[in-house]
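Below is a filled-in request sheet from our internal design queue. Each sheet records the structural input a requester submitted and the sequence that came back. We keep these sheets so that new team members can see what a complete request looks like end to end.

REQUESTER: design group, bay 2
PRIORITY: normal
MODE: inverse folding
CHAIN LENGTH: 104
BACKBONE (tokenized):
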């Protein structure tokens, strides 16, 4: 008997978006790519940025309508917009706190 779950995993390997402009990984400085994950988490195709060196990744973004997404309301993404949003999220950096600055 053939193991069909292994075949499904092999067929659904992530691919990458070639033309995304991404900042280096904030943790290791490695190159990042936008990855396409088919049928991720059973919600359909998703996009996320991921470091090719250490593997750290952004949140998933999938095409479709969101009631709320990253502080915005009633957002709809096409495939291209979902990939761009994943890049925007990856490229967003918080200002580093100096040791003299209070946290609150």
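RETURNED SEQUENCE:
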């Amino acid at each position: 008997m053939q193991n069909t779950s292994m075949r499904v995993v092999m067929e659904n390997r992530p691919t990458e978006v070639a033309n995304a402009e991404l900042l280096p990984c904030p943790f290791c400085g490695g190159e990042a790519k936008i990855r396409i994950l088919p049928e991720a988490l059973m919600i359909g195709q998703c996009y996320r940025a991921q470091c090719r060196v250490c593997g750290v990744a952004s949140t998933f973004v999938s095409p479709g309508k969101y009631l709320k997404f990253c502080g915005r309301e009633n957002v709809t993404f096409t495939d291209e917009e979902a990939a761009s949003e994943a890049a925007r999220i990856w490229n967003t950096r918080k200002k580093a706190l100096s040791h003299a600055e209070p946290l609150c």
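SHEET NOTES:
- The CA atoms of residues 74 and 89 lie 18 Å apart.
- Strands lie at 15-17, 32-37, 46-51, 64-69, 72-77.
FILED BY: M.R.
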